[in-house]
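Appendix B, example 12.
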Amino acid sequence: MVDMHAGVILFVRLLPLLLLLTGGADQELLGPAAPGLSAGPSAVDANAPGLRLLVRDSYLPHVPVLVRLEITRPDGRVDRDIWDANAVLSVVGNPSIRLSTDRVDLYNGLGSALVTVTGSGDFTLQARVNGLEKTATLADWSKRPVRTASGILRQSQTWSGAYQIKGGDFTIPAGLTLTLEPGTLVLIDGVASGTNGIDIDVQGSIQSLGTASSPVTFTASAAGRNWGELRFTKARPSVFRYTEITRAGRSPTVGHSNSGPAFRVSGSALTFEQASLTDHAGKIMQATSGSELVFTGTLFARAIMGPEIMGTSLLFENSWITDMRSRDDADGIYVHTQLAGQTCTFIGSVIAGVDDDGVDTLGSDMLIEDSIIRGCKDKAVSVFGGKTTIRRCLVVGNNLAPEDTTVASIVAKSQEGRTTIVDIDHMTLVTTRMPGIIDTGLQSHNKYGVKTGTIVFNVTNSIVDATQPVSVQSPYRITDIHINYCNVVGTPWLGIGNLSADPQFVDAVHHDYRLRAGSPCLGRAAPESPWRDLGYYQSASD
């Protein structure tokens, strides 16, 4: 027989919890909030940072797994103000599991590591950084079947589970679509060296539809090897959502770095959403011939260089480029001239830790906005022809390994008899001020010995902190450098509303370039500017 009295008591005791879970509680019903807790549907601190862990929900022993970490702000965006951080990885619940590395280095709130798992059985991966912790469970797929794919796709297919491409290049013909469900693992046979890795030749379409908890993965099937490239030629639009593409680049060399790309794109449209392209033997991508590229929330890391694009439209938004390492041409991104009507936009993004230029342009019209470029061994931005607009950017600590004793953070060059334009607004530029090095902020550079040409800098509402703020080489003219409403630190500069004062950063030594209360840069922007302070950070909003 049911005890109705006990049931009523249980219901009364659970009622506040039920109302909290359904959002139907109000303060009068629940009474005063307990000490230390806010009234309402949640006691979680709405202003607390978070940690996002993106990793496969399965693994194969000895096949590296990409671990991606993001420290997030309360609004869910990556916290780019966390300059450098080191996360620690550990295994919970399975003592037989070993990880090839227990460290993930984060740049401005985001980082990744390629981790090889040895041992067997399911396990929980734990990541900890800056007092934050996140876990994910990975299932052992070693006893699951791995299907084989080779040759030519004969009809549109949907893949799930594990597939291995072997026996030569794999082709997706025009009119066909390969759809990859969440968690799909695509293994491609690789080579130890050379340029003849297996390619995936796409004339149709790939729809790679991973999720945050179950990404899709393309990677080499064996340790110590890399596959070739994903090659798109006049293909139908393709999507890579929550997709990891690793260990490619054993493909024919092309372009600026003389290395093979992981993606070779011609006349095709590709969209990447929360994707990761990392750990390649060559460059990330070569795109040409009217291609269209969209990257949102995407990571490029640990390759020879980032994308090189020409005749290609680009939207690179809320994305990261890190750890491009090579002896030469290890640029973060290299943008050539676009076709008529195409645009190139780099916004809300980060470039950090590359061995050459952060952004290198050749004849393009490009917008770089709300972005951080730092830790480049050569220039932050190199402009050769065309027009580049740099708006609301933080450009600091570049030229870490200069090729000569005079270096510059932002350099413009022109072709013979041509004009190059660089428009800069609300930028904070701080050079390294290395002993024995003349750190230059902005430079009109005659690299190729031209006899005629024009380089124009239009700089407003910015902070330029450099040993030598401006350098102009002949035949270019100092009168084409227009600086107004700026703080040119330590150097009085003719123009409207300029300062030459200490900007009073909060803590530049530890990379906090916000302005302290009382900074002379507060409220000194041009009257027409929507942002009142000089430089990148705005006291009222950032």
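Residues 1-44 have pLDDT under 50 and may be disordered. The first helix runs from residue 4 to 22.
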